[in-house]
Amino acid sequence: MSQPLINWFKFASPASFYPLAGKLWPWFAALATAFAAAGLWISFFVAPTDFQQGEGYRIIFIHVPASWMSMFIYCVMAFWSAIGIGFNTRLSGMMSSALAPTGALFAFLSLWTGALWGKPMWGAWWVWDARLTSELILLFLYLGYIALTAAIDDPRRADKAGAIVSLVGVINVPIIYFSVKWWNTLHQGASVSMTKAPTMAATMLWGMLLMALAFWMYSIAVALYRVRAIILERERHATWVAELPEMQR
What we know:
Elements: H1 14-46, H2 60-87, H3 90-122, H4 130-151, H5 155-169, H6 172-182, H7 202-234, H8 239-242
Helix pairs in contact: 1-7, 2-3, 2-4, 2-5, 2-7, 3-4, 3-5, 3-7, 4-5, 4-6
């Protein structure tokens, strides 16, 4: 019987995952830079001007991918939380903690770019629209997770408390996504859908998808970089950390 090429279960150990994360994060950072450069070029210099919204519509190339990532990262946090509770793995809580600040950043970016877009289009910086309100709740969930885990001294207890917040709060993600369908809302429907043809020009779509890939690669790179710091902090008394060369820390 042939052996698997990679034993993925060994990377559940912080000691095994730490060097892997160190090798991977620069590659994802490089991909994020490349995708962002291409996406920004297409979005702001190649994509045509919208016939209704003029040049102001170009903020969607930041706003929409940021909104996607704010929801996706929370789902990934909930996944890691479920793994942590189900299998009692230490790395799961560390990964959730590493992802939370980036998710909060994208939720904040989504709300502020939405406000900058909404002012000329709706005539108001903010309305208590279903999607805006549920996205604001998502930002509060991120901040609540960060504050709760930081307030508990014991890392294992902090991880369990944070996992409960993640798993309970994940119900807000489908509410954000389907809010424009479930309620009467000012927010426009999705321009990109898995079941329908896109309602935008091809160059606009490429710009948006490239920016989404850039944000995705950025999120992975930053999470891997941050989780290495978390691992070092929590495992600082472990023998394997003491044996690490200074240049590898």
